[in-house]
Amino acid sequence: MQRRMGRVAGIVAVLCCIPMLASAQWTWTPQTGRFVNVKKLPKETAELQIEYARSRMLERDYKDALQETVKFRNYYGDSPLADQNQFLRGEIRVAQGKLVDAAKEFQQVVSEFPNSSLYDQVIKKQYEIGDQLYERGKVKMKRKFRLFRKKPFKDAIEVYSMVIDNQPFTDAAAEAQYKVGLCHQTRKEYTQAAFEYRRVVEDYASSDWVDDASYGLAMCYYEAARPAEYDQAPSKLAVSAIDDFKRRFPQDERIPALDEKRKEMRESIASQRLKTAQFYVKRRDFDAARIYYQLVADGFGETGSADKARKWLADNPSPEPSAADKVLRAYQKAS
Q1: Angle at 219 between CA 217 and CA 223, to 5 degrees
Q2: Beta-carbon neighbour count of residue 246 at 10 Å?
Q3: CA–CA separation, 181 vs 185, rounded Å?
Q4: What's the half-sphere exposure (Cβ side, CA atoms, 13 Å) at 179?
Q5: Per-domain residue ranges for the chain?
Q6: Mutual orientation of helices 304-315 and 286-299 as an angle, nearest 10°?
Q7: Which of 284-302 are b and which e, b meaning 16 or more Cβ less than 10 Å from the residue's Cβ?
Q8: Which of 121, 189, 206, 98 is nearest to 150 (CA)?
Q9: Which end of the chain is more exposed for a tag (fewer CB within 10 A), N or C?
Q10: DSSP sequence for 251-286
């Protein structure tokens, strides 16, 4: 009786397992001597596995598509098609809208398969992703109260930097280098932007991006300039950069606008020196004041500050050559 009950229990247990095995797609394999979940097995060949993963992507089942690429790695990792499988992972991430992750997946093609025929396609994809992130940032910047408005530009910088590292000193790298500067400038990170623009001018001197980088450099110094009460080093750099741009690109249509900015910067520098002269007047150090008034009158003749300096000098003539005059003449001679 007990033996019969044991047999019945065994049969019941097997019958209970059958639905589970069917739903999980378990199949007995003589090679392994055990049941294997068919869903976890790859397709019969590497080519079929990649195409199946791609089909899952086209059906927008991105999670399953990525899992199928993992299967490829596990079973066909040494296949000549491994670089295509990795490239497909990047395409899946793009379809998901995860652009930075996509760029990193594409980067793995370069890192793991340096001789891959997909190298140029990787660069193209990364560059397209950088541009998409930059455009996304421009849209977000228009939304005043949106959080993390500047993050897409940071992401774009990361992706453009991949392009530069992958193909240094090429036309693609020159453009990416310029756009790194542009992203920093849009984020109002003028010091970093100026550094990146200068790299374009110095490292890619023969590229088509030197004029835009030179213009961006001048604009960064201009945007970083402060009122006359503060240090005028950025204003001086802006004037110098504008002069350099005009010398190198005399026919550029942006020169008239730059001339206005140069005039503004010159006025700011002159105003600071005028304030310094006025400070010495208050201290009744007229010799020192005369030096600064004369510097403004002689060096910034086109500014409004120069008119004020000339008026003060006319109203306060030096009766005889003073120590200040001697210093001024020595300075003028040296310069």
Answers
A1: 120
A2: 17
A3: 6
A4: 29
A5: 1-40
A6: 140
A7: eebebbbbbbbbbbebbee
A8: 189
A9: N
A10: T-TTHHHHHHHHHHHHHHHHHHHHHHHHHHHHTT-H
Kindly provide the residue ranges of all beta strands, DSSP E only, lying in 20-114, ordered along the sequence.
26-29, 34-37
- Please count the other Cβ atoms lying within 10 Å of the Cβ belonging to residue 34: 9
DSSP class of 319: S
What phi and psi, each to the nearest 5 degrees, are found at residue 307?
-60, -45
Two structure tokens written together for 276: 């310094």
Using an 8 Å Cβ cutoff, are 183 and 153 in contact? yes
> What distance in Å separates the CA atoms of residue 117 and residue 128, rounded to the nearest whole number?
19
Residue type, 233: A
Distance (Å) of CA 313 to CA 291, 295, 327, 334: 10, 11, 16, 22
d(CA 77, CA 85): 9
Closest CA to 272 of 305, 224, 314: 305
Report pLDDT digits (tens) over 177-222: 999 999 999 999 999 999 999 999 999 999 999 999 999 999 999 9
